[in-house]
């Protein structure tokens, strides 16, 4: 089996729910040994986020739900009570052999347990310690709690998402997935990789990383935010319309809808030919992209009427032959049956104690020399407790049994 990019890196993961676990999963996919610490008996908060759950052999609901499984593949789960002095001592022992510690507790929360950066740096000066919080370690809101939906509103994302003003159903709209959590997880993984490079290739030391969901949300607004900073104009909601090349929108067909992006003047001319209306290429209000952007609503209405005359399959064939960026609007059943997604292997089957053929999502990363080819199912609560304590800390079965009796594990 080929080596993985991070197979010599060990991560102690104290994060819960989504943003932090998604970041550590990115590292786990690339081969890092991610030891996930969960509360005995309860586990990660994500385990109680509702259906669907995997069922046991008798059909009973377990604690293995889809939300938890989405961000915890390729990890080892250790059930350990970090609120107990003995549990804290075990964490400090594990830190000695770790490269990275990740946590998403409230600001300052872990200091009372002696598990903050300064305390663990004294044990392992090479440690990279990443804190993930809603608002960061400093500032007037640093102690405020928050979840993804709140940050979607605060960072401005909802203000530019949804049906435009003046149309039925107008108003700010939350993006379906917990997208700020996912942006944050990607930033976490990038930051950890940069810190590892600085330490190992750049001759540096370990360091502390402060990642905030609000910061990541604002950063992810990218060109929207820069439009405001450059012009002083506040961007508005445009529904499915694009921001640059036009026409870009969802267009209704006779049996569904498609999404099209006409990114430049050349593509626009090809689009007009493909739909059988070459005269639109020289229309006085549409013949340049600057004009099409100025008349975005008018051109969208024109193409709405055109696409409504035939089916999704008909138009996608026409547009594909003309090289127009276009595609169907798939639900998730259609996504995992989509020929390109099937070819790319986006559904991976792995064995799980409750289901021998559990489907999970594969990593989107493809390496030529260090390919990610093997996946392990998201762990059950405490599945690897004895394995980690015995192999990494040298504890005997009797010692582990005593810890279990005390409620430490």
From TrEMBL:
InterPro entries associated with the record: CoA-transferase_III_domain, CoA-Trfase_fam_III, CoA-Trfase_III_dom3_sf, CoA-Trfase_III_dom_1_sf
Keywords: Transferase
Transferase in keyword set: yes
Gene3D superfamilies to which the protein is assigned, alphabetical: Crotonobetainyl-coa:carnitine coa-transferase, domain 1, formyl-coa transferase, domain 3
GO molecular function, one term: CoA-transferase activity
Keyword Transferase: yes
The name this protein goes by in its record: CoA transferase
Source organism per UniProt: Rhizorhabdus dicambivorans
């Amino acid at each position: 089996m080929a080596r993985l990019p991070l197979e010599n890196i060990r991560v102690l993961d104290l994060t819960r729910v989504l943003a932090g676990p998604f970041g550590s999963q990115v590292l786990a996919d690339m081969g890092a040994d991610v030891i996930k610490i969960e509360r005995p008996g309860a586990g990660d908060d994500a385990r109680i986020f509702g259906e669907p759950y995997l069922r046991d052999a008798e059909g009973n609901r377990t604690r293995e739900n889809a939300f938890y499984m989405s961000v915890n593949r390729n990890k080892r789960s250790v059930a350990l009570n970090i609120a107990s002095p003995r549990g804290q001592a075990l964490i400090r022992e594990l830190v000695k052999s770790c490269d990275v510690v990740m946590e998403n507790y409230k600001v300052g929360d872990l200091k009372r347990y002696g598990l903050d950066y300064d305390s663990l740096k004294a044990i392992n000066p090479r440690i990279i310690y990443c804190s993930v919080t809603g608002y960061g370690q400093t500032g007037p809101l640093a102690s405020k709690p928050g979840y993804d939906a709140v940050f979607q509103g605060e960072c401005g994302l909802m203000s530019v998402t949804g049906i435009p003003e003046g149309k039925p159903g107008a108003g700010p709209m939350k993006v379906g997935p917990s997208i700020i959590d996912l942006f944050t997880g990607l930033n976490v993984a990038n930051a950890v990789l940069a810190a590892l490079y600085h330490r190992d290739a750049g001759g540096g030391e370990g360091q502390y990383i402060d990642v905030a969901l609000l910061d990541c949300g604002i950063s992810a607004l990218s060109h929207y935010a820069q439009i405001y900073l450059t012009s002083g104009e506040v961007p508005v909601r445009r529904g499915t319309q694009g921001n640059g090349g036009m026409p870009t929108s969802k267009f209704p067909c006779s049996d569904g809808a498609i999404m099209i992006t006409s990114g430049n003047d050349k593509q626009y001319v090809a689009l007009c030919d493909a739909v059988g209306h070459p005269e639109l290429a020289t229309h006085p209000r549409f013949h340049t992209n600057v004009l099409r952007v100025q008349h975005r609503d008018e051109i969208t209405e024109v193409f709405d009427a055109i696409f409504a005359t035939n089916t999704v399959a008909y138009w996608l064939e026409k547009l594909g032959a003309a090289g127009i960026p276009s595609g169907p609007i798939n639900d998730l059943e259609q996504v995992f049956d989509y020929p390109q997604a099937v070819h790319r292997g986006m559904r991976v089957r792995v064995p799980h104690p409750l289901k021998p053929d559990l489907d999970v999502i594969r990593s989107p990363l493809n390496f030529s020399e260090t390919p990610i080819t093997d996946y392990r199912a998201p762990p059950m609560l405490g599945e690897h407790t004895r394995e980690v304590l015995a192999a990494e800390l040298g504890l005997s079965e009797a010692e582990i049994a005593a810890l279990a009796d005390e409620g430490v594990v």
